[in-house]
């Protein structure tokens, strides 16, 4: 990758917290990466110290990754405002209500006070046309409602997504909202580095990176950890960065009330989606509970949460919500006697045939 000095485009500079020329480079799909000094992010406060690595036997050590930016800087994807404007949940809901889009989700969740959680995700590769207006997601979310009003809900999310019109390949993503997904704006909500909020600290892995670049054995370990009010994102063998507690004052910065694991699809076609969830294969019952398998369907295994006493506990989500069971499936295996412990299997072709 070749470095260059460049001013961000006017639309980017207007919303960017960086007022001076930034060094840039490109990733393998050709997207622009902005290289910034870590301390220049946010309100220029000193970076929060990293918490101890999470205690886990499922973390996956990566071989040395070449940082995309010069020493002393960290990578942030250039915001993709034009292609992400349809991706806030409120905007999606409006399109669905207008009959010009379809949405489906397969979810399990646990209403439990926690300071983080996650699991090991299959690095999904759904077969989607390059011009597809759809989205396919495998993810987790941790939420807190500061009051009774729905617009007070605050959430941090992470997972793997495929959005062909925005990302030509599946990518690791992160997302936050302070207003129950009502809007995306600086310090309010948004994906990756599209809006101000995310603080990048790792010099090699960043939100928006290709899933294949960090997958090991076709899997990625992803979890959040709350530390001193900040929500730190861990992927494979390191902390990537964090959402500062100042975004979530009086709410999520004190802890989450719910952790959710789910697959989701969205299509602006306005008919039965035809968008594959996960691998595009629907889960079928395991014939042997001693040998974990999702029979080619997508999965999140070794799912866990961190309780308020900082103990790691196996995920145990009683409710399962599947709003399009004729198109997608979800099966749960909580506290199983297998090495996968708590895991979910989900997916389906969405009426489009799925993956082989």
* Quaternary organisation of the protein chains: single chain
Number of helices: 4
Average of pLDDT: 84
Regions with little confidence, pLDDT below 50 for 5+ residues: 1-16
Largest sheet: 9 strands, antiparallel
Explain how this protein is built.
By secondary structure, this protein is mostly beta strands. It has one domain. Helices cover 6% and strands 35% of the residues. It has four helices and 20 strands. The chain has helices at 10-15, 81-84, 89-97, 211-214; strands at residues 4-6, 22-26, 32-36, 74-77, 102-110, 116-122, 134-145, 153-162, 171-177, 189-191, 199-200, 219-227, 230-235, 238-243, 258-267, 298-306, 312-314, 320-322, 329-333, 343-347. Strands 6, 11, 12, 13, 14, 16, 17, 19 and 20 form a nine-stranded antiparallel sheet that branches. A seven-stranded antiparallel sheet has the order 10-9-8-7-15-5-18, covered by helices on one side. It has a four-stranded antiparallel sheet with strand order 1-2-3-4, with no helix packed on it. A hairpin with a 5-residue loop joins β16 and β17 (312-314). The longest helix has 9 residues, at 89-97. The radius of gyration is 19 Å and the shape is globular. 48% of the residues are buried. Residues 1-16 have low confidence and may be disordered.
Write the layout of secondary structure elements.
Elements: E1 4-6, H1 10-15, E2 22-26, E3 32-36, E4 74-77, H2 81-84, H3 89-97, E5 102-110, E6 116-122, E7 134-145, E8 153-162, E9 171-177, E10 189-191, E11 199-200, H4 211-214, E12 219-227, E13 230-235, E14 238-243, E15 258-267, E16 298-306, E17 312-314, E18 320-322, E19 329-333, E20 343-347
Antiparallel strand pairs: 1-2, 2-3, 3-4, 5-15, 5-18, 6-12, 6-16, 7-8, 7-15, 8-9, 9-10, 11-14, 12-13, 13-14, 16-17, 16-20, 19-20
């Amino acid at each position: 990758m070749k470095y260059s000095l460049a001013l961000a485009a006017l639309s980017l500079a207007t919303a960017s917290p960086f007022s001076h020329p930034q060094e840039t480079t490109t990733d393998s799909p050709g997207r622009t990466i902005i290289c910034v000094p870590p301390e220049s992010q946010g309100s220029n406060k000193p970076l929060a110290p990293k918490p101890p690595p999470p205690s886990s036997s499922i973390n996956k050590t990566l071989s040395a990754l070449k940082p995309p930016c010069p020493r002393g800087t960290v990578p942030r994807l250039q915001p993709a405002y034009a292609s992400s404007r349809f991706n806030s949940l409120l905007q999606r809901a409006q399109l669905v209500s207008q009959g010009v889009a379809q949405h489906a989700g397969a979810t399990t969740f646990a209403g439990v006070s926690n300071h983080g959680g996650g699991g090991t995700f299959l690095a999904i590769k759904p077969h989607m046309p390059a011009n597809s207006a759809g989205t396919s997601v495998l993810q987790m979310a941790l939420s807190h409602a500061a009051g009774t009003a729905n617009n007070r809900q605050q959430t941090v999310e992470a997972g793997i997504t495929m959005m062909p019109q925005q990302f030509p390949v599946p990518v690791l993503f992160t997302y936050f909202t302070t207003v129950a997904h009502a809007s995306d704006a600086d310090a309010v909500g948004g994906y990756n580095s599209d809006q101000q909020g995310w603080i990048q600290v790792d010099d090699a892995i960043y939100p928006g990176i290709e899933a294949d670049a960090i997958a090991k054995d076709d899997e990625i370990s992803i979890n959040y950890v709350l530390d001193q009010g900040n929500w730190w994102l861990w992927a494979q063998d390191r902390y990537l960065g964090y959402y500062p507690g100042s975004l979530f004052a009086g709410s999520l910065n004190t802890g989450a009330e719910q952790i959710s694991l789910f697959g989701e699809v969205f299509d602006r076609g306005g008919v039965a989606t035809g968008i594959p969830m996960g691998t595009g294969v629907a889960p079928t019952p395991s014939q042997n509970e001693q040998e974990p398998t999702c029979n080619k369907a997508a999965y999140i295994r070794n799912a866990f949460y961190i309780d308020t006493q900082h103990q790691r506990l196996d995920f145990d989500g009683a409710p399962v919500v599947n709003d399009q069971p004729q198109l997608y499936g979800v099966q749960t295996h909580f506290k199983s006697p297998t090495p996968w412990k708590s895991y979910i299997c989900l997916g389906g072709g969405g009426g489009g045939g799925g993956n082989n």
